UniProtKB/TrEMBL annotation:
Residues 110-335 form the Fatty acid desaturase domain. Keywords: Cell inner membrane, Cell membrane, Iron, Membrane, Metal-binding, Monooxygenase, Oxidoreductase, Transmembrane, Transmembrane helix. It is a multi-pass membrane protein. GO terms for cellular component: plasma membrane. It comes from Pseudooceanicola marinus. The keyword Oxidoreductase applies. This is Alkane 1-monooxygenase 2. It is found in: Cell inner membrane. Belongs to the fatty acid desaturase type 1 family. AlkB subfamily. The chain crosses the membrane at residues 20-52, 73-96, 108-127, 218-238. Its main location: membrane. The keyword Transmembrane applies. GO terms for biological process: lipid metabolic process.
Length: 379
């Protein structure tokens, strides 16, 4: 991979990562004018960036991973301002939609699909970056963003379960080989909140504290989510509350589509006695598509994120095909493909099989990796 670090601290270098802000005026235009303009936000987030990926190609440059956080001001700034920007946009749209009579039902459905896309593809992605930091202010902003999608448990699940157990049967978020997205989605909705709760309770128990202790983050999660629901109800009444719930569902749908793509069919080698190998770059799908990495603040450099979880997004590294498996397209196209299981399997299953041959030619029976039943591993 090429390496570059010159001028990384300048706003000019960071500016492409601010393209997410354009979602806001597009949503405002759709809310005020209705009609075909309600399509602007979805077309921008899903359509335009897929086209730009084709036109701009791949970015294989790697910044110096040892750069100081002081050099990353303009990169961090977009993640720090996004929570208030999203809060105002979301609740203004709920209030305005309740006041106006110019938007028909179909227009409202499409409009709030776009808002859900913003809160999921941008908001949750930014919260993901923020929750990985040790700074309390950043973690609070992550919690606020997640509360706007009623998915606050994601922080506990992601940090305490997913990063520890990725590529193993314990991780519900690792999509299994041949598993369709609808099956995966409902499994994750069922298992992840319970897993997050059990993990936090176990963490408190190790400190001789009960689940009801104030240090259980689920109290904070409940308070923040309850506040968001109350604000939606006050500003928009029952219709406003329903619109809030709808956009939250779309946001979670987009998050879990992304999670599905990131680890589909990839597993860590079982070593016996209940142990798996350490996480390596080849346990996540990598994507170097330039434009979508701008929009998603390098989330597609997911192989390096799991290898070095505390590395801030401008410093995430990309890998060659021999170091980590590469997706054929950026996330927008891949997530759309994931919603059509036969096409998804036709595109991705051969890649998983090639991955197995490349990294684990010694494994001849993959059945335990499909079923999650390894000898000596608790069921």
């Amino acid at each position: 991979m090429m390496s570059t670090s010159q001028g990384i601290s300048t706003f000019t270098r960071a500016a492409p990562f601010w393209l997410s802000l354009l979602m806001v005026p597009l949503i405002v235009i759709g809310t005020v004018y209705g009609g075909w303009t309600v399509l602007l936000a979805p077309l921008y987030g899903l359509g335009l960036f897929s086209l730009l990926d084709r036109l701009l190609g791949l970015n294989t440059e790697n910044a110096d991973p040892d750069r100081s956080v002081d050099d990353l001001f303009w990169y961090r700034a977009i993640t720090l301002i996004w929570a208030p920007v999203q809060f105002v946009t979301l609740f203004w749209a709920i209030w305005y939609t309740r006041q106006t009579e110019t938007l028909g039902l179909l227009e409202v459905i499409v409009l709030f699909y776009g808002i859900g896309l913003m809160c999921g593809a941008i908001g949750i992605v930014y919260s993901h970056e923020l929750m990985h930091q040790t700074n309390k202010r950043e973690r609070w902003l992550a919690d606020i963003l997640l509360a706007m999608t009623l998915y606050s448990h994601f922080r506990s699940e992601h940090l305490l379960v997913h990063h520890v157990a990725v590529g193993t049967p314990r991780d519900a978020v690792t999509a299994r080989y041949n598993e369709s997205f609808p099956h995966y989605f409902w499994r994750v909705l069922r298992d992840c909140p319970r897993s997050a709760w059990k993990t936090e309770v176990a963490r408190l128990k190790r400190k001789d504290l009960p689940p009801t202790d104030r240090r259980n983050p689920f109290w904070r999660y409940a308070a923040l989510q309850g506040a968001m629901l109350l604000i939606a109800l006050i500003l928009g009444g029952l219709p406003g509350l329903l619109l809030f719930l709808y956009q939250a569902f779309i946001a979670v749908w987009m998050l879990e589509l992304t999670n599905y793509v990131e680890h589909y069919g990839l597993t860590r080698k079982y070593l016996g006695n209940g142990k798996f190998e350490h996480v390596k770059p080849h346990h996540s799908w990598n994507a170097s598509h330039r434009a979508t990495n701008w929009l998603l603040i390098n989330l597609q450099r997911h192989s390096d994120h799991h290898y070095k979880p505390d590395r801030r997004f401008p410093l995430l590294q990309t890998y060659t095909d021999g170091e980590a498996p590469e997706l054929p397209h950026g996330y927008p196209l891949m997530t759309m493909l994931a919603m059509i299981p036969p096409l998804w399997r036709r595109r991705m299953n051969p890649r998983v099989r090639l991955w197995r041959q490349m990294y684990y030619p010694e494994i001849t029976d993959w059945t335990p990796y499909k079923t999650g039943r390894h000898e000596g591993l608790p069921g």
